Structure formats: C-alpha cells, structure tokens
C-alpha cells in the first residue's frame, strides 16, 4: 500500500490554467491528501474552485475563517481515510488521520510560513511545543516555510546571514525533526527573473519526527519541476514495508577482534574442494559464510536483548554480593557478570556504529542511541521508493520497481561486447562479493587476507577460456 501526500504553494488558484494543473497533479500522482498554499481564493469563489480541482469523493478544510484569502487549503479522499483538523492558524493546519489501515493516528502539519521573520516566530514556537506533544505519534510537517536552513539553500541575491536566519535551523534541531530523504529539485523557489537578477531558494521542506521514520522507514519526498507556480510541488510517499525478503549475509567488522575469528576462517579454508579455482573460491566462501552465521547467532544476534539480560544478571549479582559481601563465590559471580555486561555493551555499540556508517565518532562513549537514530535515517535515505520508466511514468510498488531494474540490466548486459576487452580481475572481485559477502562497514577482512592466494590461478584459468 502506498500513501501519497502532496503540498504546493500555487500562488493563486483562481485561474482556470492553475485549476486544471492542480487537478492533473492530484490525479497523476494519485494523492490521498494535499495541502495547497497561498490559494488567494475568496469565500464567494470557494465552491466553484473546489468543483474544478477536486476529484469525486474529496473533501476540504481551510483557514479561510482566519484569513479571507485562504492561505492554506487541505483536501483528502474520503473513500480512503478520514481527516480531522486539530489546530488551524494563519500559518499552519495540523490534521489527524483516522479510518485508515496504516495511517490512523498519524498527524500531518501543512505549513505556509509568514514573510515576516517576527511572525514566523509563532511557527517556530509551535513546532518546538508540538514536537513534545507528538513524540510518540507519527508526525510529518510539509509546506512553504519561507526560510532556509543554511547558506547553500540559496543562489543569487544578498549573501548576508542575519540573526533571524538562525531561527529556522535552531527550531528544527530543538524539535528533533529530520528531513525526509528526497530527490528532485533542491532550490524549490525561483523569482522568475533572468541573468544577474535571478534568485533561487529552497523554501519548501518536508520534515518528520522519529516516530514517523520508525513507522514508515521507506518514507521518501519528491520535489517536482516548477509548472504554473514559482514554487515546486512536493510529494511525500509513505509505502508499507514489503514482505520480509531473505536476509543477505552481512559481515561484522567486530568479529575480527574475536579470538576465534582466524581459527574459523582457517578451518573453512582447509576444506578440500575439487573444481576450477572460481568454484573452489566461492565454495569456501559459502562454507565460511555458514560458520560466521553460526557465530552471529551465538554472539551478535539480538545484541540489544543480550545486553538487557546481561545488565539484569549483573544487577542481581550486585544485590547478592551486597547481602553477603564475604562470599568468594558471589564476588567472583559479580565480577564475571560485570565483565560480560561490559563486553556485550562494546559489541552492541560497535554493531550499531557499523550499521549507521557514522565513522567520525569514536567508540567507548555508549553512543548506541545516537547510532540507532543514524541507522534509521540512513535506511530511510537509502531506500529506493520510486523509479521512472522511459515514458516518464513513476512507479512506486516494490514489484514494479524490481521489474524496471531487471529489464534495464537485461538490455544493458545484452548489448554486444568483446570478451577480450573485459578486465578479468575486477568482475572476479565483484563476483566474490556478490556470491559471498556484502559487508556493511569497512573492507571485508578475510577476503583481503586470502585473495592474494587465489587471484593468480583464477585469472589464469579464465584467460585460458
């Protein structure tokens, strides 16, 4: 199941061309919810505009009762979900979703920040407060904030960075909000001028809290090319996590610090395999992989639960020793449980550091929570949630994305090529990595150790073909 939420500063919705564009935008991207900003629609014209832009069975709410020019209009497909506003102001509308199999309870805030830095302070205050209220509720914030996070979010115009420019990045940091991983345009607003007068900025943003990244780890944003408006339209794609596939082998660098690691590698490599060098190499890698999987189940699988159990055992040992401090047996048990707990904590921290790919932070300071958050954001960022085919059609389902990728590489690999032009060693290394190991962190240690022994005979065998 895919849920699509759109937001767009249309800069006026009274003209027929923009109304037609908005209708096509809703239909083409199969939106379930949208937020239109700066509509400039008066109450006397609202019904007519809604008839032009809304597909059947849609409903809207707006902040027209606060601002007569309807700064924000939110629409949703009533056949798929129910939406109820929880707070409506001049600069934002927050909604809660119900009657939906996977979105119920989630909240979305559509933002149209004021042009005045002083008035935007109310928005920053709200985001800080709401981030506490929504700590355990999936919450996404999207729209035109009329602010940039950093100097690189603008091109042209004044380069000055005034004090009020710090308000937005400080608010996002204080609120523990994360940018939803995005593709498409970076600079989402264009002033419509050319030459030296051109100014472009990133004013449109999509953020989420940790709860929504946990509930929707594959969340993805797409900022579309500009059309009738001077702002890019944006789409937030929330896709239900696909059925769990077979887990690929992942080499953990921390294994190389274990005393039994080299013995495991040597025992796997001492197996006598009959066949050509490539078959021998991949067969031994498969044996080694099985043995490392068994080691993983013993040592590093469910590491956080093992840390939890070890901590409980250490606490119990401390209480027992406190009741009978003269017991040699209890003294030894307490020291052993403490040693076991500390070792597992180090394993857990190394595990999450490798998976999060945060290499600049040293181990030893119990950064597990930070690494875990970094891992979640990295997983979300690296997920492929959309592919576009040759006709320009977007595909979101896992099956469609897979079929597109397979067809692309079929065409690529099927192209004529001379075998003599192929570098033998490079594809051989790739083959070993694909068949044997795909480490998450640094270089694959046993492969580096043993590659030199087999490289020459493998290459010679291939050259003879």
From TrEMBL:
Gene3D superfamilies: Endonuclease/exonuclease/phosphatase. Residues 6-192 form the Endonuclease/exonuclease/phosphatase domain. The chain crosses the membrane at residues 428-451. Pfam families: Exo_endo_phos. It comes from the Eukaryota. GO terms for molecular function: catalytic activity. SUPFAM superfamilies: DNase I-like (SSF56219). This is Endonuclease/exonuclease/phosphatase domain-containing protein.
């Amino acid at each position: 199941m895919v849920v699509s939420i759109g937001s767009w500063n249309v800069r006026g919705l009274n003209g027929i061309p923009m109304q037609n564009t908005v209708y096509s935008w809703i239909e083409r991207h199969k939106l379930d919810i949208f937020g239109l900003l700066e509509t400039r629609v008066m109450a006397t014209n609202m019904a007519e505009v809604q008839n032009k832009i809304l597909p059947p069975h849609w409903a809207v709410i707006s902040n027209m009762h606060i601002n007569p020019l309807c700064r924000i209009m939110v629409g949703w497909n009533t056949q798929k979900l129910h939406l109820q506003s929880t707070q409506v102001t001049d600069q934002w509308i927050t909604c809660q979703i119900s009657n939906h199999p996977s979105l119920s309870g989630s909240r979305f805030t559509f933002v149209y920040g004021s042009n005045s830095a002083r008035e935007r302070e109310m928005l920053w205050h709200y985001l800080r407060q709401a981030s506490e209220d929504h700590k355990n509720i999936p919450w996404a914030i999207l729209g035109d904030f009329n602010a940039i996070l950093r100097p690189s979010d603008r091109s042209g115009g004044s380069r000055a960075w005034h004090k009020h420019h710090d308000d937005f990045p400080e608010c996002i940091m204080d609120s523990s909000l994360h940018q939803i991983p995005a593709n498409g345009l970076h600079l989402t607003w264009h002033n419509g001028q050319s030459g030296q007068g051109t100014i472009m900025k990133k004013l449109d943003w999509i953020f989420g809290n940790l709860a929504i990244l946990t509930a929707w780890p594959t969340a993805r944003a797409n900022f579309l090319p500009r059309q009738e408006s001077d702002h890019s339209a944006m789409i937030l794609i929330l896709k239900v996590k696909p059925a769990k596939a077979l887990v690929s082998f992942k080499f953990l660098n921390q294994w190389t610090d274990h005393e039994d690691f080299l013995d495991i590698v040597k025992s796997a490599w001492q197996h006598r395999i009959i066949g050509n060098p490539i078959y021998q190499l991949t067969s031994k890698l498969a044996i080694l992989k099985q043995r490392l999987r068994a080691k993983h189940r013993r040592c590093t699988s469910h590491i956080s639960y093992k840390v939890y159990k070890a901590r409980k055992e250490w606490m119990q040992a401390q209480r027992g020793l406190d009741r009978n401090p003269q017991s040699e047996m209890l003294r030894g048990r307490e020291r052993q449980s403490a040693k076991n707990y500390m070792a597992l904590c180090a394993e857990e921290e190394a595990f999450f550091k490798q998976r999060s790919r945060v290499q600049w932070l040293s181990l030893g300071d119990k950064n597990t929570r930070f690494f875990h958050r970094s891992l979640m954001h990295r997983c979300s960022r690296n997920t492929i949630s959309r592919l576009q085919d040759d006709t320009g059609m977007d595909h979101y389902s896992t099956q469609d994305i897979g079929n597109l990728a397979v067809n692309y590489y079929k065409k690529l690999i099927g192209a004529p090529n001379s075998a003599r032009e192929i570098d033998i060693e490079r594809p051989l290394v790739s083959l070993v990595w694909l068949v044997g190991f795909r480490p998450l962190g640094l270089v694959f240690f046993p492969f580096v150790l043993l590659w030199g022994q087999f490289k020459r005979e493998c290459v010679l065998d291939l050259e003879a073909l």
